[in-house]
Write a structure and sequence with these properties.
The protein has 457 residues and is α/β, with parallel strands linked by helices. 31% of the residues lie in helices and 22% in strands. The protein starts with a strand and ends in a 5-residue tail after the last helix.
Length: 457
């Protein structure tokens, strides 16, 4: 008999992917949500498991279910959750469920405040290119993979280990639940201000994660990051393989990045110091999984990056339009610096949408100091509606300029005005970089794309 699982809050990015993965495994899947957006909606509909109507329906919860998978978006007083508890049906957060399904596998967890998705994506790309068997959980849609989750009989699982809270019932970071054998930590830079009110509190989560590395396990860590390096040097780990890494050796020629290797200089599609650091981390993991260096280099040459990570929306001979997920201070600085260093002779117009609770908070904004220094024109966009929804006060222009340490910072609170300003720019010898974990209130990029697709003569 096939197993039956019900998803409370099935519409989330990872939640709907997990639902589709279980369906592919032959399980019976149902779910509910009070709001489902694209692309989740179409994907669930095409699979035949889109809830018929929005809302929560306790009658969907019955004793024949093997388990409930609870999304972070659901509240603790959710009527379906209450009914499941009454019937004593096992309730799993998705990290607990991933562990439940992978107890007999080698578990590799990629953690850190930045670079997680990219490092995980690089590893998946290499393993897939080499036809190796593996399962995975990654935080973004990546090229060549239909789903963000795969669960099969594979002997290993690669997991992007997020530090955000597990579920409404479990206020601990997700990454504690995976019980890793191999742990990579890319860097620690304060994020999720609403959940971890102090940096020390935030850093402690990573410290505890390192401490649960088992005997015979492996801890791979970025030596360039002072916080990670500090933890690695001060935590006593017995019988654990410690592997430090820095950025892979490379050089830039005609705005193209090449890796220096024992097999010659190898051109790659991605660029920026942070990405060469990510690449070295991915190489260390692949080595532990038995991949030969030469095979890694061959496979990584055509890795184009995860969705919304230095994604090219338009380009011509003297200009490129990039979109990037960067939103936390460390990500913003790394991305701006990478684009400027790769194209030093081009003007850089960089736009950051303040979208997360941390970024919209006046007590956090000082963490963005000097993140925009390399941009020739630095622009901030924030939506007053998003600020009020998060029950925060709208920061003044002077607070933002002081926070970013940039007097010439341009600030927009209306996306149509921002759109007009950008469309009026001359993009001769200019790159445009849009950064956000949001979408600029669905700003139409059609005209901008056409301007940046035109060659200048």
């Amino acid at each position: 008999m096939s197993k039956k699982y019900h998803f409370i809050a099935i519409g989330g990015a990872v939640m709907h992917n997990l639902a589709l993965a279980l369906l592919a495994k032959g399980y019976e899947v149902s779910g509910s949500d009070d709001e489902i957006y694209e692309p989740s909606k179409s994907r669930l509909r095409n699979a035949g498991i889109l809830p018929k109507e929005k809302g929560w329906f306790p009658e969907k919860i019955h004793s024949e279910l093997d388990g409930i998978i609870l999304g972070m978006h659901a509240r603790i007083d959710n009527p379906e959750l209450i009914r499941a508890k009454e019937l004593n049906i096992p309730v799993y957060s998705f990290p607990e469920f991933i562990y439940n399904q992978s107890q007999n596998k080698q578990r590799v967890v990629i953690s850190g405040s930045h670079g997680k998705t990219t490092i995980t994506s690089m590893i998946l790309h290499v393993l897939q290119t080499l036809d190796m068997e593996f399962d995975y959980l990654v935080g973004a849609q990546i090229e060549g993979f239909d789903l963000m989750v795969k669960l099969s009989e594979a002997p290993v699982i690669i997991i992007e280990g997020d530090e955000y809270l597990t579920s409404p019932l479990d206020r601990r970071p997700k990454f504690f639940h995976y019980h890793h054998h191999i742990l990579l930590m890319s860097g620690i830079a304060w994020d999720h201000f609403n959940v971890f009110p102090t940096f020390e509190n935030y850093k402690t989560q990573f410290e505890e994660l390192i401490k649960i590395t088992p005997k015979g396990g492996t801890f791979i860590y970025c030596e360039n990051d002072p916080e990670v390096n500090d933890l690695a040097k001060n935590i006593s780990l017995k019988q654990v393989d410690l592997i430090p890494y820095t950025n892979h050796e490379y050089f830039v020629e005609n705005s193209k990045t090449l890796l220096k290797t024992n097999f010659g200089d190898i051109p790659i599609e991605i660029f920026g110091n942070h990405n060469l650091q990510n690449l070295q981390g991915a190489l260390e993991i692949c080595r532990k999984l038995g991949v030969e260096d030469q095979d890694f280099y061959k496979a990584i040459q055509n890795f184009k990056g995860a969705a919304k990570r230095q994604e090219i929306l338009a380009q011509a001979n003297d200009r490129i339009f990039f979109r990037d997920f960067a939103h936390a201070p460390s990500k913003l600085k790394a991305t701006v610096n990478a684009v400027k260093n790769q194209f030093p002779d081009r003007r850089l117009i960089a736009v950051q949408e303040l979208h997360t609770y941390s970024s919209l908070n006046k007590d956090f904004v000082h963490n963005y100091a000097h993140t925009f220094d390399e941009a020739d024109i630095a622009i901030i966009y924030l939506n007053p509606k998003a600020v009020s929804l998060k029950k925060l006060e709208l920061m003044t222009d002077s607070t933002l300029r002081e926070g970013f340490k940039r007097e010439d910072l341009k600030i927009f609170t209306d996306s149509s005005q921002l759109k007009s300003f950008l469309e009026e720019q001359d993009f001769k010898d200019t790159n445009l970089l849009l950064m956000s974990s949001g979408n600029y209130d669905d700003m139409d990029l059609t005209i901008l794309k056409s301007k940046l697709n035109k060659n200048h003569f």
